[in-house]
């Protein structure tokens, strides 16, 4: 197959099915010509309007560290600076809890950026409620074509007030990456769409017996993914996006059972040996260096595997094994991040146009498709993916997505960083038995009620 264009549109928590369409070479050629014309027009507009101002924009994103598209992001920023004559003062950082806390503090102290690529769930509530970001509707009053290529029904609204502020760039799915060599050396089969949690635990034991780490993870830095799927294993796609009101209500019981499963995995010795003290990058490197079999993360991690591995063909991605009512092929997916323009930039006559132009340079259809790859988007026509340019891991991801039976957003997005801290920060103490699971959940509930 020389070239095949696949439109991938996954509405995450807002839809229960995967919508995938295929087109032939003629469609790909027509689409490419249209994109080139659109991109050329955008470039001419920026050359006409931006070079005179030489504005410096303060920009914060999550394109940093080992996340996907870091190089593309830096190239995009450099290209925009050359086209417009404007400058970017970039303070991007990996999207961990420390970064989230820094962003919130910046807004509280008046040091917020002009343009922000950030989460659109409860993590953004504080600066939304403070009136420090501009809504998409307000921007469209002056720039009517702003994000016109997006399906407005797929643009998430702020949970704080139901207003849409962040333009989605591309979304995510979460899955289980697999080191094929470790599985082969341990004599186990790679988990598939029919693998149950019980079977997965048996596989992990065989991998441990063979002298390898079954699961690479840092519970002190990134408990997020195992937290999400472990709870999902005691929920359904229809009920997962919820937070408990009481420890013993239905949601609270699912959280308690899910976290108990994480504790069980820890006690079995299936996580990275120093999972309670190691950095996230250290755990990830163990996976890349053939020391661990499995690594649960988001779609963005494919770029990190590609850029940090000598042999991309040694890796694949599959579903996180399920149990109870959750099918293994039910996944966590959604559009949890987007581009914000802050009130500070909007109210500055020199920065306003530059900020809008910078965001538009990222959210045009061609750029979104280029960055998204196999990830979800809010594009009206879906992301156009040229399969001939995909590596083996990306092709495996597309194959996996075609088998998805249902999707759910992440329940942790309903909590702010401070609200989920009793569980996330204390995960090492929880799995070591120093803190009761029910106590940690109660602290989350208390924080949500404050």
Briefly say what this structure is:
The protein is α/β, with parallel strands linked by helices and 450 residues long.
Provide an overview of this structure.
The chain has helices at about 25-50, 70-85, 95-110, 125-130, 135-140, 180-185, 195-210, 225-230, 250-265, 280-290, 300-310, 345, 350-365, 365-370, 390-400, 415-425, 425-430, 435-450, and strands spanning about 5-10, 20-25, 55-60, 85-90, 115-120, 165-170, 170-180, 215, 290-300, 315-320, 330-335, 335-340, 385, 405-410. Strands 7, 8, 9, 10, 11 and 14 form a 6-stranded mixed beta sheet that branches. It is globular and about 65 Å long. It has about 450 residues and is an alpha/beta fold. The model is unreliable at about 1-50 (pLDDT under 50). The N and C termini lie far apart (about 55 Å). Helix 8 (about 225-230) crosses helix 9 and helix 16 packs antiparallel against helix 18. It is built from 18 helices and 14 strands. The longest helix is centred in the first third of the chain and has 26 residues, at about 25-50. About 45% of the residues lie in helices and about 15% in strands.
